[in-house]
Design brief:
This protein is an alpha+beta fold. The protein has six helices and six strands. The strands form two sheets. The chain has a three-stranded antiparallel beta sheet, with helices on one face. A three-stranded antiparallel beta sheet has the order 4-2-6, with no helix packed on it. The two termini are 36 Å apart.
Length: 185
């Protein structure tokens, strides 16, 4: 912590600031020149906000010059998860937002990857879109198990009893567009 003492109140440049302003910083696309056999990936994105994926036909995509592989759920050996803690499926069987990647096309260059993705045919069963917190609650559609945060060492019964004894209480609903939502009891 003492390391930060000398920096409080001082303007300290970002470690790559000089590279950014001089144009010397390397970005992902810049790195491809160091890896000549690097594959380019492009997603096949769902045109629906909510739908079941019924069938994926990648046969035409595989005929596009430069296509190496079309990745789908069948290629996942472990958990079909894009995160480390029960996140959304990497290759979903049910689309939950417009533009969600359903499969990924790997190719020798970006143009081939884009053309290959355009050639993949996906059959969907459109489902009602869930566009609000209220609609999600009504349809019992939750991203994960409800999460609550608390700061007490009491049993739930003791906490509720003490809560009811308080003379000042705040009650209501809170809506926010953030990723994490809170439940106040």
């Amino acid at each position: 912590m003492s390391h930060f003492k000398n920096h409080v109140g001082k303007a300290i440049p970002h470690e790559s600031a000089k590279l950014h302003v001089s144009g010397e910083a390397l970005y992902t696309d810049d790195l491809s020149k160091f890896f000549p056999k690097l594959l380019h990936a492009f997603p096949v994105q769902a045109p629906y906000s909510h739908a079941k994926v019924l069938k994926i036909d990648s046969s035409e995509a595989l005929n596009v010059q430069g296509i190496v592989k079309v990745l789908s759920a069948e290629d996942v050996l472990g958990v079909n998860d894009s995160g480390i803690h029960h996140d959304e499926a990497l290759f979903p069987s049910e689309v939950t937002f417009h533009g969600q990647a359903v499969v990924w096309v790997l190719a020798e260059n970006e143009t081939a990857a884009r053309l290959g993705a355009a050639a993949v045919k996906v059959d969907y069963e459109p489902l009602p879109a869930i566009l609000s917190i209220q609609a999600a609650i009504e349809s019992q559609s939750f991203h994960d198990e409800p999460m609550s945060l608390s700061r007490h060492n009491l049993s739930d019964a003791e906490f509720r009893a003490r809560f009811e004894e308080q003379s000042h209480r705040l009650q209501g609903e809170l809506y926010m567009g953030a990723q994490e939502h809170f439940l106040f009891i």
